[in-house]
Each structure stands twice: as structure tokens, then as C-alpha cells.
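Weekly puzzle thread! Below is a chain. First person to post its structure in C-alpha cell form gets bragging rights.
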Amino acid sequence: MQKAEKFWDKASRRYAKSPVKNMEAYNRTMERTKFYLSKEDDVLEVGCGAGSTALLLADQARRITATDISSEMIRIAEDKAKAQGVENAEFICAEIFEDALGKGPFDVALPFNLLHLVEDAPAAIRRIRGLLKPGGLFISKTVCLGGHSRLLRYVIPAMQAIGLAPYVSYLTAAGLASIIREEGFEIIETGNYPAKPPRPFIVAKKV
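Winning reply:
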């Protein structure tokens, strides 16, 4: 995990300055996410990066706890929150399995653009489920590269070898949905924003 921390620390400034590649898809994702949020909700975002999404959603929740493994990402997020005057978002540097992530229980968990970057997606989903209240919502969007391009299976390892890419798994949309169900959730909404490569948006309820 230390290797991942170093990668994202190094990439943090560039990542924070990078524009959203598909604003239409991002806006659709945020629109559907906001539909499920209440101003009474305690929300957990795992893998918050530079904090843009947490800050965008902060006024839709009572409180947002946003976490990332990169201390540099968290520092940038805290600076942005201060600049924007957002007071109900807390940023924590923590790996998903660390106690520092928070004990909850939370009403909603948001692992956006995360599950393809963890080595054990079922364990990560299980961990998040344990932090949710009964009936709590799991809302995610994750790129699924499985079956998309065989070339990527050669390109990505080459980039990883020289420090230009993090760990990446090759999930499929169907496989991810199956894992989420197996880990104790009922899927109540799906979407795909954008469609290529598939980035399934999944809303699931803890059962």
C-alpha cells in the first residue's frame, strides 16, 4: 500500500489541476447521487482524491467524511474546503482498512473511481458495508476494463514498471455487480456514465 501512497502523493498536484474529462457524465453522476442524499445524512467518501466531489456534495448532507491514502491529496482538499468556506466536510488520510477511516455508522458511502484501484475489491466492499447503517446506501462508479482492451493488459504493466500507473484491476460491469450483491447489498439503480469504457454507476442498499 505504501507504493500506492507514494504514487498518488507524487501525482496529487497534476491530478488536482486536471479537468474532468467528460463533464456531461460527471454531472449525470452527481445528479443521480444527489437524488439519494438527505441533509440529515452522514456521508463517507472513500478515495476522495483532491476533494472536489466531497465539496460539491457537502451542501446535500449533514456531514461528509472524505478519506484518501494520499496525504498530499488530503492537504489539497483541506485547502480547497477552507477557500470555499465549507465547514461540514472532514478530510482524513487513511487506507480503507485502517481504523482511522472512521467507525460510522454512515448513512451513505461513496467509493467513486476506487474499486478498480484496490487489490481486493470484495474485501473493500465488505469493509464499507460494515461502516454503513442498516439500509445504508453504497453509491459507486468505477471503470471496468475487463474485456475492454487486451492492449491495456500490456500497456498498464509497462507504465506501472516505470511508476506512471498505479495498481489497476480488470473488473467487468457484471462481475462488479455480482460482487456487490454477494457482499450483502441489493442493487436498486444502475447507469453507465460514460458507456465506453464502461463506468457503471451503481446504487445499492445494505441488507
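Puzzle host: Confirmed. Bonus trivia for everyone else. The first helix runs from residue 2 to 17.
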